[in-house]
Structures are given as structure tokens and as C-alpha cells.
Amino acid sequence: MDTPQVTAPKYAPSPVPGDATPTSGVTHINVRHAAGFTVIGNHLAQHRGLSLAAIGLAAHIQSLPAGARIGIKHLAERFPEGETRIAAALRELEAHGYLHRSRVRLADGRIVTRTVSYNRPDAVAHPAPAPRPRTSPSKPAPPPPRVTAPEPPPAPTPQPQPVLAPAPTARTTPSLPLPQPQELTPELQRVATALLADLRRHAPQLVLSENDIRALTPGVATWLERDAHPDTVRHALTTDLPVPLKHPAKLLHHRITALLPPPLPGTQDVALAHPGVIVIPLQNCDRCDRAFRSRHPGHCRDCRDCRDCRPDLHTAA
Predict the structure, then answer these.
(1) Which CATH number fits domain 42-121: 3.60.15.10, 3.40.710.10, 1.10.10.10, 3.40.50.300?
(2) Using CA atoms, how far apart are residues 268 and 275, in angstroms rounded to an integer?
(3) Rounded to a whole number, what is the largest CA-CA distance in the chain?
(4) Residue among 263, 294, 267, 274 at smallest CA distance from 179
(5) Helices 230-238 + 186-197 axis angle, to 10
(6) What is the pTM of this model?
(7) Across 39-45, average pLDDT
């Protein structure tokens, strides 16, 4: 009974402070990295003002080597997020100082985007001013030579000058008039208004007022009247926007006017021969492949009225 038990410890080991397993929440199992790692500060990983997509994108950018491509299209090919979400995340990082993008013109005339990534925006060191030349303490600097200014010549008698009109500038030059459709139908007006109001979902900078939408609606209706798909119009108005964008309505007015596509082949001749006539394009029937005129693809009149093709539209006698 008095034999000691050498296998049993005399007392239980005391827990190490900080190593106790929490009853809830995350438990960390950390292994020290020896190579292939990137240091990310908690000011970024736990940022209160950035979205989760922006924080992940910043960590990915900081892990890339210098000279790596981080364009929107390149990142969209690398990750499952679309171009719209990636562009919004880049704007967040730029607004909080983690990213800076500028447009630079190269020697050959091409314009490229130069991107600078900051891992600590609050500690960016500004370049110090150039040091002033020092003079030897043993030899004082010689005083600057005195320069005697020549006497000014007598002022000539002023002659009356003709009044010239000021040269036209970017502010005084009138912009091109907004294109107008041949007939602004209620359907064209509805689709054009909805497209303009929906632009802010694809580009948050393009927030338009009701007056701006009402003024730009005829121009977008002209695009739709020339059989431009709404996705085509939206892409032309939202792609490659300047940063920052100060006047969204003026930019859209310029793009709607400058990028207006021409009418489809054949419709221009009819418009010139018969002014005021609205040309409805030809469509091929999805069922019988017969040509018919309509603004939208679908079925011809015979297939729409056929009892065998569309039994759901007719009732039994």
C-alpha cells in the first residue's frame, strides 16, 4: 500500500496564459511561414469601412510582384466576381488610400493606367526637398554682384486697338445637339427612361436627376429606334468612365451624340425617299422562318393565329 506511483504526476500542470481554448468563436492554429508569405496589417484586414471584396482584393494586390497586371478585365478572368463588382472594390480601395490610379501618356502617344498600391496609407513618406548647396565655413560666400538696371525707354503713345471677339474655348463652344428620333413612341420613351435610370446600378457615378433623364431620353430613344440593343447602349455609356466624374449628364450627352450608330443598311434610302416614314426592320419567324416586319423578333401573324402551332390561344368549339 505504501508503494509510490511513479507514473502519475504530482500535480496538474497550470494552463499557459493565452493558450486556453475559448468556449465559442474562432480558435487559431498558427504555423510560422518560412517563405512565400505577405504581411497584411490589421488596419486592412479589420477595416470597418471596406467591404469584404475590397479587403480580399487589396490582400491579393499586395501579394503580387511589381509589374503584375491588375486591370479590371484581367482580375475578372482570374476571379469569379464580375467586372462591376471588381471595379467597385477598386474604387473603395482608392477612396481609402490603399490604391492610386492615374492616366499617363507614353512617348508613343498611348494612354495607360498607372496603379500604385500602399500597404499603409497613413505612413506614406513624401519626397524630401532637394538640399541647398553648402558653402565652406572658412571662406564666406562672396556677395552677389550689383547689377544696375538700365533706364526704361519712354513709354510710347497708346494707339486705339480694334476690339476682337474672344477665341472660342471648351466652355464657350456649344455642344452638338442631342439626336432626336423620327417618332418618340410611348414604348421607346419608356425603355429609354428605364435604361437611363438604371445606369447607376452598373456605374454608381452615373446618378442622374429627373430633369437629366427627361432631357437625355430622346437621344437614347434614337439609339433604340436604330435597332441598338439596350445592352449595347448601356455598354457605350458606362465603359471607361473618367475618374473623378464631375458632370455625369454632360458626359452622357456627349457619348449619346458622338457614338450614335448609323441606321441599318437599306433604311436610309427609304428615309430619304419618303421623309417622315418610320422604317420597321424585317424579322424571320422563329417557327416557319418567314420574313415579316416587326420591331421585335418572334412569330409571324400566320403562326400567331395558327391553331396547330398555338393551341393555348384557342378554345375548343
Answers:
(1) 1.10.10.10
(2) 10
(3) 132
(4) 263
(5) 40
(6) 0.35
(7) 88
Please calculate the CA angle 85-87-91 and round it to the nearest 5 degrees.
115
pLDDT in tens, 118-128: 888 887 654 44
Residues of the chain with CATH 1.10.10.10: 42-121
- Burial (CB count within 10 angstroms: exposed 0-12, middle 13-18, buried 19+), residue 25: exposed
Q: Which three cell numbers stand for residue 147?
A: 547689377
- Please answer whether residues 301 and 288 qualify as being in contact, where contact means their C-beta atoms are separated by less than 8 angstroms: no
In which residue are the cell numbers 509589374 written? 67
Q: Is the pLDDT of residue 131 over 60?
A: no
pLDDT in tens, 244-286: 888 999 999 999 999 888 887 755 554 554 555 555 666 778 7
Is the Cβ–Cβ distance between 79 and 61 less than 8 Å?
A: no
